[in-house]
Amino acid sequence: TEPAVQFYTGNFLDGLGGKAGAVYERHHAFCLETQHFPDSINHDHFPTTILRPGETYQQSTEYRFSTL
């Protein structure tokens, strides 16, 4: 439910060990991180990022991947 997504890659992985003996080398990973727009607090037309006392915050993200 976040309005933006940050994408970054594992370009600097250098043999990091993972589960079941997996080894993560350069370009073996990527991340999709949902978030609010950068600098949104300074832009009135962006969704608010302020959480006031007594307010709750909840969000969920569902990724669906398929092949072409």
TrEMBL record:
GO terms for biological process: galactose catabolic process via UDP-galactose, Leloir pathway; glucose metabolic process. It comes from marine metagenome. GO terms for molecular function: aldose 1-epimerase activity; carbohydrate binding. SUPFAM superfamilies: Galactose mutarotase-like (SSF74650). Pfam families: Aldose_epim. This is Galactose-1-epimerase.
